[in-house]
Amino acid sequence: MSLVAACCNTPSTETQWDNRGEYQILGIKIAGEDRKTYRTGPKDSKRGLIAIYDIFGYHPTGLQFFDRIASSHGGFQLSAPDFFRNGGITNEQMGAGVMPWIHENGDFKKNHINEMILAAVEDLRKDGCTSFSVFGQCWGAIMSVLAASQENQPFLAAGGPHPSFFSVESLKDVKVPVIILASKDEADMIPVAASVDAKGFAIKCFHKRYENMIHGWTGGRGDWTIAENREAGLDAVDQLGAYFAKVAEANSKL
């Protein structure tokens, strides 16, 4: 799998956002340690979402994105675990240092990514959620797909905006439909979506390309004080919320 080139050379932005949610400790210890998560959304919703940030970790634009999705389309209880014990990547570590940093801090198995995701699911389940989807930004998007490729995985859908490492091969084992919101910097994602649709899921994959957006515009590289970025960001919020509401509704009718 290859990393989107823009992921290596585009720094994070300085932005602000007043968080609507709160940080909590996951109910299950991970490798014997307490780990935290960001929880947001209406507490009476029965629809759960696991959100996976990009390599910059908790960033104001990313948290705004999560808050807005959690309140969209009737609302979701959203949990965004803090996967990086020492914080996200710094701008000084960009360039050639990105892939080594990901291997050290964001490896699906070594860094207990799936264990944290499942712990967050169990917390949502205890809080009344009966259906679950998972999504992420950039690196987080492929993490969502890997989580949804495991045996006995609990999710109805996966995917996310400006994904890195997405290919027909990397999505070959995914067990749910996928939503792909590409920026101008990603490769053509239509064959990827088609390869997942070939699995015959009841809900088709959703794909949209934002030709004027850079890789990372909904997360650490996003500056929504720029009107065009904000408009595209809010559209991505709407597309994700609508898709996850759709799969949850379809599941409730089974």
From TrEMBL:
Signal peptide: none annotated. Pfam families: DLH. Residues 37-239 form the Dienelactone hydrolase domain. It comes from the Eukaryota. One of its GO terms (molecular function) is hydrolase activity. This is Dienelactone hydrolase domain-containing protein. It comes from Podila minutissima.
